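Subject: Protein record for review, amino acid sequence with backbone structure tokens
Category: Structural biology, sequence-to-fold work with a learned token vocabulary.
Format: Residues in single-letter code; tokens as whole numbers, each standing for a residue.
Body of memo: The sequence and its backbone structure tokens, given next.
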Amino acid sequence: MKEVVDFADAKDSSGKRRRSWKTVKHRYRSLPDQNYISRFHQVGIEKELHSTRTLSFQGEKKTLGRVSSKNATTHSYTIQPTISLDGRVIGPMFLCLQETNGRMGDIVKRHLFEPKNVVITCSSSGKLTNSLVRYWRDKVLVPSIGKKTLLLSDSWTGQNDNSIYQDLKSVGKAVHRIQIPPKTTSDIQPLDKYFNRQIKNLAKKLYNRVALDQLDINLHERNNIIKLVSLIHNQISAPIF
């Protein structure tokens, strides 16, 4: 990789905010393996994905829709895939479920579906926290990378603490993190631009199939969410994908 695109966000002579792109030389010019560069980004998915489009007769004042759980349409869980420079999925999928008080009870744990390709955790909001990023580091990143890795991530405060990655020296891993500038994630974050859209599209197709065929499956239930995420990871990890 000889060049990267640097994103500049500054004010011009008139005082207005402007955005421009400039090409700069990259100090990581020689890469023996594209797996040396890894990227990750979290994506929130509603517990029940539903279409906001309907068919209706002209002049009809009210068009009714149906979901299996109204509460599930306003709550979400978070998944965080990790990919290499060549687009291959690295390690298992990281899944953060929404649980009351941010923890699972003993009964829930006993009946929890635990596939090998999904690392499961939880929080009260269903979103990641700084401590959960460290958990992702230990359970997903460290077992899946070599001795040296260049890590690309966005500027979210929960994951921009460099000490999270410097601590890995004790386990023989050298991780150098490059941060995507604030407010530019939607422009230059590879997962946000393309990869995570595939995941959401796969999830929508599965939700739509259950709804259209009126299958007796509640995809907003905990174990079914885990099975769904496991299936998506299986598909996007396939060489043909």
